[in-house]
From TrEMBL:
The keyword Signal applies. The keyword Signal applies. It holds the Pfam family DUF3347. It comes from Flavobacterium johnsoniae. This is MerP protein. Residues 1-23 form the signal peptide. Residues 44-134 form the DUF3347 domain. Keywords: Signal. It comes from the Bacteria. InterPro entries: DUF3347.
Amino acid sequence: MKNTISTIAAVIIVLFTANTIQANTNKTSETGIETVDSNQLQTVYDAYFTVKDALIKSDAKLTSAKAQDLLTAITAVKMDKLKTDEHTAWMKVVKKLTADAKSISSTTDLKKQRETFKSLSKNTYTLIKVSKSTEAVYKQYCPMADGDWLSKEKAVKNPYYGSSMLTCGNVVETIK
């Protein structure tokens, strides 16, 4: 009798555990938790473009604020939702992207912001080459500043010199 009760209790525990696992699996499928979010990085790219646009305007305070928005976008990325190749690239650049965004946001010295923007652009480029933006992105280069940047427009608007040399540079690559 004692063995029968123990056997029945064990069967009930196994069935209960199996039902719980099945219920959790169904809940995960319904909420889409396991899906990969390929647009997650787009918010980072969009924030990067607002930093670039603020530098074009030579507005150090706006650049600082937009870099803070970029920092928020970077920290919001959920690495477990990235595709494998995106995750690999993200792991290579996330610390530098974060450091650059913090550096730009913590100063209103336009010269320092522009110098740090070179590194920010380089690392954003590494990421965008793997994941692709939702639209064409142009890698542009200014020989005077010896720096690259990314733009959604083909027309050159130089973030390193602003209005003093707005069109200095050229498109060196189109990323689609």
